[in-house]
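Record minuted for completeness.

…
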Amino acid sequence: MFSLSDLRTITEDGVEFKSHLDGSKHFFSPEKVMDIEQNLGADIIMAFDECCPYPSTYEYTKNSMERTTRWAKRCKEHFKNTKNQGLFGIIQGGFYEDLRKKSAEDLIKLDFPGYAIGGISVGEPKEEFLKILKYTAPLMPKDKPRYLMGVGTPDYLIESALAGIDMCDCVLPTRIARNGTALTSHGKVVVRNATYERDWSTLDNECDCYTCKNYTKAYIRHLIKTNEILGVILLSIHNLRFLTNLMERVRIEIENDNLLNFKQEFYKKYGYTKE
C-alpha cells in the first residue's frame, strides 16, 4: 500500500490494486490478507494496516489510524491458526503523539500476542524518527514482543534497541547488495567503485562470514561489474551476517548494561558524525 500508492484505491472494505503489467485489478481485504499469511506459514504475521506517507495531515493520519484499528479487529476475528502463528497488531498514527497513544490503547484492548510500530522510517528526518520511536515504545506492553517495522541501518537498529524494541526487519542488506554496497565495521564500502579494482583485501577483516573468508574486494567488484549474480549473493551473505553480528553484540551489551557506551564507540568507528 505504501510503495504502490499510485496504483491503489483504499476503502473501508480493503484495498484494490491495479497491475502495472496489464491493468488487471486485485482486491485485498483484511480477511483475504489473513488467509494469505496463514497459508504462507510464517511464525509471525501482521494485521492489515495503512502506512501513511511523510508528511501527512492530521486529518488524513487520524482517519487512516482509525481504519487500521478497525481492520486489526477484523483480522483478529478472522484469524484461526493461533497455535502456530503469532498475529501482531501495528501501531499507527504518523508523527502525532496523541494518535500514537490512541492507536496503542485501542490495539492493546484487542490483546494481540505482539505489537509493532509502523509508519516511521518512511523518509522523515532522523530527529522525527527518534521522537516518535521514544514516545511510542513505552506505550507497548512490557510482557509482549515489541517489533519496529522497516528499520535496517546500523544506527537505527542500535537506537531501536536503546528504546526498548525487541526486533526489526528491513530489505536494506540485500537491496544495497544489489547496488554493489557492503556494510562494514568501518562504514559502507561501495565495491563497484574503481578504487577497489585491484584491492585484494577482504570486505571486512572483522567479519567471519563466508564471503570475507573466501573473496576479495577486487573479485567481488569484477562480479558486480560483469553482472554475475554471484557478486550480489556474496554481498548479501556479508551484509546479513554483518547485521546479525551487530545484533549479537547489542544483546551482549544490553546484558552488561553497556549499550550506550557501545553505541558511541560503534558510531565513531563506523563513521557517523552527528551524534
Notes: The chain has a mean pLDDT of 97. The longest helix spans residues 229-255.
